Amino acid sequence: MATRNTYEDWIPEEYSGPVITRVNQQSAVERLARRIPMATDTKHVPRSAGVGVNFVAKGNPYTEDASVNDDVLLTALKFGRVIRIADEDLKDTTQVANIIATKQNDWATSYAKFIDNATLATSAAGNGTTVPFTSLYYSLTQNDTDTSYTANANLTQTGSGGVTYDNLSATLADYEAGDFFDDGNTIVIASPVFKAAFRGIKDDEGRPIFVTGLAGTPDTLFNYPVAWSNGCRLSATATDTPTGSPVLFVGNREYLFLGIRSGPESMTAGADTGAAFLTDEALLKMRARRGFAVAHEKAWACLEDNS
Question: What's the pTM value of the predicted model, to 2 decimals?
Answer without folding.
Answer: 0.84
